[in-house]
Design brief:
Blueprint lengths: L1 E12 L10 E17 L5 E5 L3 H6 L2 E3 L2 E5 L8 H13 L6 E7 L9 H16 L6 H16 L5 H8 L3 E3 L6 E2 L6 E7 L6 H14 L1 H23 L6 H15 L4 H12 L5 E4 L6 E6 L4 H10 L4 E7 L4
Parallel strand pairs: 3-6
Antiparallel strand pairs: 1-2, 2-6, 2-7, 3-5, 4-5, 7-8, 9-11, 9-12, 10-11
Helix pairs in contact: 2-3, 2-4, 3-4, 4-5, 6-7, 7-8, 9-10
The chain binds (3R)-3-hydroxy-3-methyl-5-(phosphonooxy)pentanoic acid.
């Protein structure tokens, strides 16, 4: 049996502005993962998933305990699972195998942790192993990007890049990817509002606001870009404890863009009151996750404060060069 995984991800700086060619920084989060296994079978290709993934809900598929089974042939062409499998098989010039492809993911969906891109990446990796193909990170990333367009409309490409490369990335849309050195590891608390918020909607609203007042929004995006550049320098120079004020500033600009919400603001306030030196929403916003800069001394208190302020889950992760 073949088994492959892909980590979740979190954006540290620069979300939304990255759609408008400003830089953003994102890192993998290995505490949450998508896992895909492929087992040969006598039947045509069948997908087995848990009900937490969106696809089974759409098909009302056959249930076995909490698992659902769907025949690959029955999936619609615009379904993200169908799309990534089809694209990968086409690139290998092979037909669907007689096998069962099982997907399990611990990454919450529609909450800024890269669930869609991680499931797609794990599928490509598993199919590559099944058909004994050698795919590099760039090839995986570009297959996954095609499917991100179904999920997100006009994605910048940051999710597929950070997840397929599995390393911290400094990302500028349309430019070759840059990984960078994390001179001193640092810790983040990642807290989930529990509100699912499709990125597509927040991105569309920012676009409409930008169309209505380009000058104002270009200035906000410039501010985010400058923050991202300073953050990269601090991370490379081994001064990650100074990132807090940049996070606070970035959160302020995201609020100005209109992509925060009361629940995210409450978590940001709770984290800073409990001793985190900075905090911000992460990803599309309007729900999903926020991040706070913590250290070993204050992470317990920050976690408690976040749970007390309504977080549904708090993950503590350490950012290093190789995750
Ligand atoms: O919500 P997420 O983590 O998938 O991130 C979206 C990031 C945006 O900058 C808002 C959109 C994009 O395509 O980069």
């Amino acid at each position: 049996m073949i088994s492959e995984t892909a980590s979740g991800k979190i954006i540290l700086f620069g979300e939304h502005a990255v759609v408008y060619q400003r830089p953003a920084i994102a890192v993998p989060v290995s505490q949450v993962q998508a896992r895909v296994t492929i087992k040969k079978s006598k039947q045509p290709l069948t997908i087995q998933t848990s009900e937490v993934l969106p696809t089974p809900l759409r098909y009302g598929a056959l249930r076995e305990n909490s698992e659902v089974l769907i025949s690959y042939a029955d999936l619609r062409d615009d379904d993200p699972l169908k799309a990534i499998i089809q694209l990968t098989l086409r690139s290998f010039k092979v037909t669907p195998p007689h096998a069962t492809l099982t997907i399990h993911s611990t990454i919450p969906i529609a909450s800024g942790l890269g669930s869609g891109a991680a499931v797609s990446t794990a599928i490509v990796r598993a199919l590559a192993q099944y058909f004994k193909r050698d795919l590099d990170s760039a090839a995986i990333s570009s297959l996954v990007y095609e499917v991100e367009k179904i999920h997100h409309g006009t994605p910048s490409g940051i999710d597929n890049t950070v997840i397929a490369y599995g390393k911290p990335v400094y990302f500028v849309r349309g430019q070759p990817i840059e990984t960078f050195n994390v001179a001193r590891p640092f810790r983040l608390a990642i807290a989930d509002t529990g509100i699912q918020s499709p990125t597509k909607i927040a991105v569309g609203d920012v676009r409409a606001a930008w169309e209505a007042d380009k000058d104002r929004h270009e200035k906000i995006f410039d501010g985010c870009g400058a923050i991202t550049q300073q953050a990269r320098k601090l991370i490379e120079d081994g001064q990650p404890d100074q990132l807090g004020s940049l996070m606070n500033e970035n959160h302020k600009l995201l609020r100005e863009m209109g992509v925060s919400c009361p629940e995210l603001d409450d978590l940001v306030d709770a984290a800073t009151r409990a001793g985190a030196s900075g905090a911000k929403l992460s990803g599309g916003g309007r729900g999903g996750n926020m991040i706070a800069l913590v250290n070993e001394a204050n992470e317990g208190e920050v976690r408690e404060a976040l749970m007390g302020a309504g977080a549904k889950q708090v993950i503590i992760t350490t950012v290093t060069s190789d995750q």
